[in-house]
Specification:
CATH class of the largest domain: Alpha Beta
Shape: globular
Radius of gyration: 25 Å
Strand order of the largest sheet: 3-9-10-16-13-12-11
CATH architecture of the largest domain: 2-Layer Sandwich
Number of helices: 13
Largest sheet: 7 strands, mixed
CATH superfamily of the largest domain: Bira Bifunctional Protein, Domain 2
Number of strands: 23
Oligomer: single chain
Helix content: 25-40%
Length: 441
Amino acid sequence: MASPSPDLMSTIVSLCKRRGFIFQSSEIYGGLNSCWDYGPLGVELKRNVKEAWWRSMVTRRRNIVGIDASILMHPKVWEASGHLSGFTDPLVDCKVCKERFRADHLESLEKCPKCGGQLTEVRKFNLMFKTFMGPIEDQSATVFMRPETAQGIFVNFLNVQTASRLKPPFGIAQIGKSFRNEITPGNFTYRTREFEQMEMEFFVPPSEDEKWYQYWKDARFQWYKDYGIKTENLRMREHEKDELAHYAKACADVEYKFPFGWSELEGIANRTDFDLKRHSEFSGKSLAYFDEESKQHYFPYVIEPAAGADRATLAFLIDSYSVEGEGKDARTVLHLHPSLAPIKVAVLPLVKRDGMPEKSEKIYNDLLDNSIKSFYDHNSAIGRRYARQDEAGTPFCVTVDSQSMQDDTVTIRERDTRAQYRVAASSVVEVINQKIKEAQK
């Protein structure tokens, strides 16, 4: 299958602004590079992606719990984790046009790929954002915006294990903001300096690491398929030995075929016992687990599925996008999974008279009262309203027409097939709930 056209990316960016998914941050001031704001539809979509992840990783599992750790942490955390000394990218600048590049992303260091000018020597650039805690801006007050959520889990290992009384294998999950001062961010929301991660650290006996590594690779790959990503646009790529982080025994990426090429959606890593050992060493507090059966202490190995909420949201948007038909019959559709769709139901009176708006309003309020995100629209012809909802990814439309006023039934229209069928107005909530439940894996 051919790769998606790069033009698709600009189409998606345009759609996102027009329909209220994603806007350029601070746009009225000219924008801020690589920073994006989620609009009314985008915030619902991203929230639904995070909730689908949480449901799969925490709610439906008996041996995984969640936390929400602070963004600001003790500076020693980043010393122990290796981020202060090793979290760097190789940086070069052009002496002519002043453009900045990651050296490892260039084919040649002989000349600037933009203007042909001479490049500076390669130097290391730490990706962590610095700030100061308290009124005095000196070295003693330096703290860092976390570059990953994982360390908040590791330093809380004993707290969570003791409070939850869980034994390995068990996991701790977290969704939260992270910050990386990327040299060359880009590709819309794919690579940004502020982003949201969905991470889980799964603590296992050292002898079981390979079994659980394979389990989580399979489970995480399947998750994207369950929520609608086409199989041909997904692949699992195992890292070569020279790619592995110094602490990793193995790592694999779930990759998606973006319009700009195959790129990482999620990494699944076998981090061994590196993290708990390092934090034990630097804090002076043992994070070893005591096994009651063997009467021995050991440091659990960690299997880490780490996904980007922004990247996943972008992939679901791109993969669901479709233009169907030709000419005046063409329609733009986002075939979003019903669980992910920002709006589940649009309620549409056929005309603005004969009691149809009032009946539609009642159905709309019933849906909202049952926590089903819905939208009410009575403007323009019904076909145009259907088209607007297709483009927003709304899976169901409920139409109130003249027959509704006679027999108290309404038409439900399904986005993907355009099939239409009538149901009792009083059963709309039940029918929609059942449809969404059936779509959930």
